[in-house]
């Protein structure tokens, strides 16, 4: 029996989640860049090569943010080539699975266009910044555009969106908990968590 298409479920949840209750973020300089600290700490202890690749991709993502380059699949693919040390990072060509096969992300002729549309919405001024960053993180997680490294791509996407508006989180570890496509409250809570981290100091 084929698993339910969790991507279709996410697209419905995405429309229903209460994004407007996301907190307002403050441009307060953190004591450290949480993404770099995470890479230099737990990631490097586990796998130095993985950490170095993530840091290289992070440098690209921050540079793209500073230049105001629109977020699209080509931009993500450039970061992903660094993450995976691959010459190409194409959009997947089959259904994708996660959580030991419990979530299936379907592929249709519209999937890539739908993903592009979602990425364009990251500049929507009617949605709070924390919500836009959270929503894009989940878009990458549930569209699952790459054959590998989607969790890392999702986190870089979130960092990039915040960096475009001069927001740097002092830590990113708490963001990396399991998320489910059918959880509108959890989606909104991710935006709230971004607000909490925005106010933390090391």
Descriptive report:
- With 202 residues, this protein is mainly α.
- It has a single domain (6-198), classed as Fido-like domain (Fic-like fold, Orthogonal Bundle).
- Helices cover 54% and strands 3% of the residues.
- The chain is built from eight helices and two strands.
- The protein has helices spanning 6-16, 34-46, 48-66, 73-84, 111-120, 129-143, 150-163, 184-198, and strands spanning 96-98, 103-105.
- It has a two-stranded antiparallel sheet.
- Helix 2 runs antiparallel to helix 3 (48-66) and helix 6 crosses helix 8 (184-198).
- The mean pLDDT is 95.
Tags for this model:
202 residues; two-stranded antiparallel sheet; globular; 54% helix; mainly alpha; Fic-like fold
| Ends distance | 49 Å
- Given the structure, what is the number of helices? 8
Strand content: under 5%
- CATH homology superfamily name: Fido-like domain
Strand order of the largest sheet: 1-2
Tertiary shape: globular
Helix content: 40-55%
- Contiguous low-pLDDT stretches (5 residues minimum) are none
CATH class call = Mainly Alpha
CATH fold group: Fic-like fold
Average pLDDT metric: 95
Strand elements, count: 2
Whole-angstrom Rg: 16 Å
Oligomeric state: single chain
SSE order, one letter for each helix or strand: HHHHEEHHHH
Q: How many strands, which pairing sense, and closed or not: the largest β-sheet?
A: 2 strands, antiparallel
* Total discrete domains: 1
What structural category arises from helix and sheet content?
Answer: mainly alpha
CATH architecture label = Orthogonal Bundle
């Amino acid at each position: 029996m084929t698993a339910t298409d969790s991507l279709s479920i996410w697209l419905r949840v995405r429309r229903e989640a209460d994004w407007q209750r996301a907190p307002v973020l403050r441009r307060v300089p953190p004591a450290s860049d949480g993404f770099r600290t995470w890479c230099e700490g737990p990631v490097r202890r586990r796998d130095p090569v993985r950490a170095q690749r993530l840091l290289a991709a992070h440098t690209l993502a921050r540079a793209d943010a500073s230049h105001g380059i629109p977020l699209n699949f080509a931009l993500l693919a450039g970061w992903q080539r660094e993450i995976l040390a691959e010459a190409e990072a194409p959009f997947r060509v089959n259904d994708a699975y996660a959580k030991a096969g419990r979530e299936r992300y379907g592929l249709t002729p519209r999937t890539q266009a739908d993903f592009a549309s979602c990425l364009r919405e990251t500049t929507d001024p009617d949605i709070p910044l924390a919500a836009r960053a959270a929503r894009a993180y989940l878009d990458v997680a549930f569209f699952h555009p790459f054959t590998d490294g989607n969790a890392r791509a999702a986190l870089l996407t979130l960092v990039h969106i915040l960096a475009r508006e001069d927001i740097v989180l002092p830590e990113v570890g708490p963001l990396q908990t399991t998320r489910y496509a059918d959880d509108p409250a959890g989606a909104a809570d991710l935006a709230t968590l971004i607000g909490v981290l925005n106010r933390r100091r090391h």
